[in-house]
Amino acid sequence: MSQSTAITDAVQPAGVGRFSTQHGLLRAEKRPGPEGLDIAIAGVPFDQGSYGWTGQRFGPDQARAFSHTVRQVHALTDRAPFTWCRIGDVGDAPVNPLNPEQSIRDISKFFSRIATAGAVPMGIGGDHTITLLIMRGMAQAGVRVPFGMVHFDAHPDIYDEIDGSRVNCATGFRRAIEEGLIDPRRYIMIGIRVMRDIESLEWAKAQGVTVLTDDDCAALGRHGVIDRIRKVVGEQPAFLSFDIDSLDIAYVQGTQSPEPGELSVRDVQVILRGLRGLDFIGADVVELLPLLDPAGRTAISTVNVAYEILCLIAEARAKRTSAGTG
Hints:
Low-confidence stretches: 1-16
CATH superfamily: Ureohydrolase domain
Strand content: 15-25%
CATH class: Alpha Beta
Structural class: alpha/beta
């Protein structure tokens, strides 16, 4: 019996197939809450921070529907997150579609409960506002801030305001720096190729943020990007936020702002696998918009990228646990 088969038998109960309703996001077992878990995966059906296409509120459901396309053991690396950690899908964060302010507060409280229970949060969205809300919840629970940040995106999402709104899908990372949630000197953006104004990006650089544009990624190559990320983030705790529009439009039609550009799914797979050993203490994957791709091609890309990230945070959590640091 191969190592992968042995691990699969250990994490896949007899009689529970890949299409079982017992499985949730990334084929994690559905759980009523985060207590007793090492990693809590949660849907965040929030799109009230969007100023373009909306419908990301349906993203978590489509991600669950297409989670059967991922496997509980990584086919190429033999990484087995469900063996290393107790992982569960704890359902969706509460959202009031008629009251965005209440939704913002309630989502942060939801993730505060996850962090208080001692679980690493992983959010599946939902628009990119949710990264700020997850990190706020972690800080409310007493998780030490600021974090490092690895941010994949076609857009910098670091504007001061959009049409008078200061908390939305394009301003969250600026608020996070201002609120002391992110250390800008340990913050790197990857794949930037579209922006509303140069001044906001210059503001970010002045704070110490490292920006890799689409052209930078092409010039550096996959391993050059890996080296730059590792140099910027270092060994201290970091959050990983992945906007699926960082992928070329060929892979993700179902997102708010699809953009042609450099990163393929294969690029991202190689880069993420090159980040093993970094101390990731939280993550999200955002901007899946099923109404623009009901066939689910974007969802397949989304859940497979999310699984690569799950491997990273599970390995980091297992390492901390073995070291006695949570």
